[in-house]
Amino acid sequence: MTSSVFTKQSEKLVAMENVSKKITIYPSYYLQKLPGTSPLLFLREGVAERIIRLADRLPGQLSLVLIDGWRSYETQRCLYDRAAARFRKLGHTEQQVKEEMTGFVAFPSRDPACPAPHYSGSAIDLTLAEGQDWLEMGTDFDDFTDKAGLTYYEGKEGLSGSALRARNNRRKLRHLMECAGFVPNPAEWWHYSYGDRTWANANHTIPLYGGTEK
Predict the structure, then answer these.
(1) Do 10 and 208 touch, CB atoms closer than 8 A?
(2) Quick one: DSSP state of residue 106?
(3) Domain 3-202, what architecture?
(4) Which long-range contacts (CB under 8 A, 24 or more apart) does 173-181 make?
(5) CA distance 67 to 51
(6) Per DSSP, which regions of the chain are E strands?
(7) Is residue 123 a contact partner of residue 191, using CB atoms and an 8 Å limit?
(8) Among 118, 135, 136, 175, which is most buried by a count of CB atoms within 10 Å?
(9) What is the pLDDT of residue 4?
(10) Is the dihedral angle over the CA atoms 29, 187, 153, 147 positive or is it negative?
(11) DSSP character at residue 116
């Protein structure tokens, strides 16, 4: 597969700062001082436009908190190595490490035809806020347990008040994102994409974007 397959590969990465009063940036990996990070958050232009339209339609004090968008190869490599170390520390074999990490951290690649989702600029990690407070989602961002799964709370009886709030807030975020054309990651309630391979597979089409550098 060559980059010419991607119909919107020429789209620029755009910064998401100050694009809407309904969008706040929380650059988690920059704050953790990971290599290759920036205080700015970038998305492909078409992806950014969808996020801005979604945010501007949110009612009342509801808003979006964007945590991560385009991700450099260096950052992806650091995250992959860090996650692998966590799983090894838990006593997992190398085969188990590869299997467990599949849904959480993509393998880093500079190949534009086979990128990690964030390296394409078409994947986004985000949550919802009400005023200054982030809504309850059941886990923190980058939680590597089953509890982070998109539908973890679905079908469960006797949920506590906080668990019910988490379930309902995950449903709300998913509804908003899917109505805007995004596809969720089943293993991570915070991760959505538009135009990458996951999105393409879900929509039975080809990806719009390949990997890119700033």
Answers:
(1) no
(2) P
(3) 2-Layer Sandwich (3.30)
(4) 173/126, 173/127, 173/128, 173/137, 174/150, 176/54, 176/58, 176/128, 177/54, 179/54, 180/50, 180/51, 180/53, 180/54, 181/50
(5) 13
(6) 13-15, 23-25, 42-44, 62-68, 123-130, 133-134, 183-185, 188-193
(7) yes
(8) 118
(9) 57
(10) negative
(11) -
Give dist(CA 39, CA 56) in Å, integer: 23
With a CB cutoff of 8 Å and minimum separation 6, the contacts of 39 are: 25, 27, 30
Which pLDDT value is given to residue 84? 86
Check: CB of residue 11 under 8 Å from CB of residue 25: no
Strand ranges (E), 69-136: 123-130, 133-134
Domain boundaries, the chain: 3-202
- Rounded CA separation 133/11 (Å): 33
Between CA 70 and CA 108 the distance in angstroms is 13
Q: Report the alpha-carbon distance of residue 201 to residue 208 in Å, rounded.
A: 11
Q: Rounded to two decimals, what is the model's pTM?
A: 0.92
**Nearest partner of 58 among 128, 146, 113, 6, judged by Cα:** 128
Residues of the chain predicted below pLDDT 50: 1-2
Beta bridge partners of residue 42, listed in sequence order: 15
* Interatomic CA distance for residues 136 and 164, integer angstroms: 9
- Please give the structure tokens belonging to residue 167: 């379930």
74 neighbors 57 (Cβ within 8 angstroms): no
